[in-house]
Amino acid sequence: MTDLAPERSAPATSAPATSAPSTDGTPGLAPLSLLAVVAIALAFVAPIGGVVVGFIARHEVRRSGERGDGLAFAAILIGATLTLFGVLVPGALALSGVIDTTIQSWG
Q1: How many Å apart are CA 7 and CA 35, to the nearest integer?
Q2: What's the confidence (pLDDT) of residue 93?
Q3: Distances (CA, A) of 86 to 6, 7, 19, 78, 92
Q4: How far is Cα 31 from Cα 15, in angstroms, rounded to an integer?
Q5: Is 90 exceeded by the pLDDT of residue 3?
Q6: Where is region (Disordered) located (predicted)?
Q7: Model-level pTM?
Q8: Is 57:75 a contact under the CB 8 Å cutoff?
Q9: Alpha helices, DSSP H only, in the chain?
């Protein structure tokens, strides 16, 4: 038989305690920020609104300790990317002549 060192397990790490206890009195997760959820939804529907609400949500999440900082950051990135593609790509196509931007009279 060979000599083997006894297995050592890593010390258990606990999640940081939050101010919102669960129903049984143990520390639970902080609530998810409603502004962060609205920001990610707006990022796809109205990208500029997603960027603005995303910045507001990040500020509120950091101030209040709620969850959702990553969600708000994703809303900022997605909203900014979609805004750039919604403005720059059509503008570049119009300047290159692919899209005809001249106004023609009907008479």
Answers
A1: 46
A2: 84
A3: 60, 57, 42, 12, 11
A4: 15
A5: no
A6: 1-25
A7: 0.65
A8: yes
A9: 34-45, 47-64, 69-96
